[in-house]
Amino acid sequence: MKAALASAFALSQIAGVVAHGGVLSYDIAGTTYNGFVPYNTPVGQSSIQRIWNKYDPIQDVTLPILACNDNGLTLDLQKTASVAAGSKVVAFWNTWPHDTGPMLAYLAQCPGSTCTGVDPTTLKWFKIAEAGLISGTVGKGVWAAGQMIAANNSWTITIPSTVPAGNYLLRHETIALHSMPAQNYPECAQIQITGSGNVPPPASILVSFPGAYKQTDPGITIDIYSNAALTQTTYVIPGPPVYPGTGATTTTGPTSTVGSSSSSSSTSRPATTSTTATTTSSAPGATQTKYGQCGGQGWTGPTVCASGSTCTVSNQYYSQCL
Ligand SMILES: *[C@@H]1O[C@H](CO)[C@@H](O)[C@H](O)[C@H]1NC(C)=O
Ligand SMILES: [Cu+2]
């Protein structure tokens, strides 16, 4: 038995699969929710999380399991957490081994009155939080995944207060960049958002999984061991711009030029906020960056787009520099 374990360990060392993982539990507005337990039968398991069977990464972003991992289906004893818009959600990973890469969170509204039974590849997703290269260079910098590890293997996001009430899948993801191709680790949970949010995500930022990423995206192909990485201070987080409503978060490094800034962005990690990040100013006469908000009901920020982009109406609540 001991020998068998030892050789299994040696094999896993050789294969380089010593440790991967995913989100094991959640704290949602102060209530703890267990996740699904991978490597175990779904029979008898009850969780707000969708099924994910193993700790392995996904290294092909065109696979259907990019949506909610393998296999992403609902449990027979599936639960849904009720959460007021504006609440904090803390996701807890296993002892996470990969400190190099971004953290991302998405929502997708389900049709009908529940997400139970809904295929996540049929949904339209929008990004509500992202954090990438926090400081330093691509080769030697501090990444959001490293901050997640430092924070007890947890990452805190806010359900934007402006998200309309309804049933959603909440998709957490970290992308590990220590290997090529990059390793995506998504997990999903079912939540019912309550409140009076009235800012639906503009169609321009809705994506599908798979579909949202390409294997050729710079944030996927990046080589953190290259010579260029030793001086590169920008990392383009994959996926669409962040939802423009209140409470969505973008955390980027001081010199980052991630193209997905949002005028309403703030950070859930004040210690790492940079005043020169790509968040926009609402000072009169300010110019909005490409993909940023430039108009819509209640908008008081800049209405002039940076040269090369044009303010384009998405809906009554949102116009974007495109
Ligand atoms: C650290 O994370 C674990 C879950 O992995 C949680 O049970 C524990 O309360 C956390 N500790 C602190 C201090 O937040
Ligand atoms: Cu791993």
Automatic annotation (TrEMBL):
Coiled-coil region list: none
Keyword line: Carbohydrate metabolism, Cellulose degradation, Copper, Disulfide bond, Metal-binding, Monooxygenase, Oxidoreductase, Polysaccharide degradation, Secreted, Signal
Q: Does the keyword Secreted apply?
A: yes
Q: Which GO terms describe its molecular function?
A: cellulase activity; cellulose binding; metal ion binding; monooxygenase activity
Stretches the record annotates as Disordered: 245-289
SMART domains per the record? Answer: fCBD
Classification via InterPro entries: AA9, AA9_LPMO, CBD, CBD_sf
A GO cellular component annotation here is: extracellular region
Low complexity composition-biased segments: 245-287
Question: Where does the record place the CBM1 domain?
Answer: 286-322
Q: What is its main location?
A: secreted
> What is the E.C. number?
1.14.99.56
Question: Its catalytic activity?
Answer: [(1->4)-beta-D-glucosyl]n+m + reduced acceptor + O2 = 4-dehydro-beta-D-glucosyl-[(1->4)-beta-D-glucosyl]n-1 + [(1->4)-beta-D-glucosyl]m + acceptor + H2O
GO BP term (any one): cellulose catabolic process
Leader sequence residues: 1-19
Q: In this record, what's one Pfam family?
A: AA9
State its location(s). Answer: Secreted
| Record comment regarding domains | Has a modular structure: an endo-beta-1,4-glucanase catalytic module at the N-terminus, a linker rich in serines and threonines, and a C-terminal carbohydrate-binding module (CBM).
- Role description: Lytic polysaccharide monooxygenase (LMPO) that depolymerizes crystalline and amorphous polysaccharides via the oxidation of scissile alpha- or beta-(1-4)-glycosidic bonds, yielding C1 and/or C4 oxidation products. Catalysis by LPMOs requires the reduction of the active-site copper from Cu(II) to Cu(I) by a reducing agent and H(2)O(2) or O(2) as a cosubstrate.
| Identification of the protein by name | AA9 family lytic polysaccharide monooxygenase
Lineage, uppermost ranks: Eukaryota, Fungi, Dikarya, Basidiomycota, Agaricomycotina
